[in-house]
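Structure Section — protein described below
Tokens — whole-number codes for backbone shape
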Amino acid sequence: SRGLGDVYKRQFMDKSTTGVNVVKVPKYRLQPAHLMAMVSQMSMDDPQDRRDATQYTFNLFTALRPGHTAPSVTKSFKHGLRWKDVVFIPSVKHAKKVMIRVSSTKTRKKEEQKTWWTSVAALDRADGEGRFCPVSLLRMLFVSDFNGDPESPIFRSRLKQRSPVGRTEYTATLRARLLRSLPLLDIDPDFFSLSNYSGISWRKGGLSLLSSTDIQPNRLADHADHGSVDTSRIYAKDTIAERANNTTRMAAMFADGW
């Protein structure tokens, strides 16, 4: 069987040492079911499990671009989140909400000083360990990982503890954990392509989930930090298409004599 470490090493080494150009394919959405399957296999007592669970949950609920938590170039990390960008409200101990400051984004240049804020709220229905609550997880990560330096990255590399996790490392680990979770999702690994998933999949999943709540495109654009409302409307169209697919599924059930 292929364990987490084996898959992680194979994917990371293949891309980082061979120099082979990888053909980019459209990335699919990662949804709450994927998150729950992956995180349910993690232990909050394990430092790396705790970091990964926090990062995945954070990325889904904020729908931030992956460069904010897993940059492609770790030395620059110009869009990256650091502990100085996190504010627990009303306090770390009694946090009900977390405000996140993003000094620069794809649509807001740092030199123009257009700081952008987003936030996440605590989930009342999260499990006892807070494994699916972005606020509880961020609080646990802060207590365990914060070294007193506000400039330190929130999500650190398992390879270089003082550096942020890089895009290649993050993607390899994500795919390895996703592979391990497939049995819980009742998915046959032989008919599943890991290359269809990467850090952007959490953003796509979060925005698609929000669009299914009938949120207005302008509010979705604000949450996503889209430069245009037209971009946000794409997710609404995806949701409408999915609703049409649901109708097809229902018709098939009737045809089968349900």
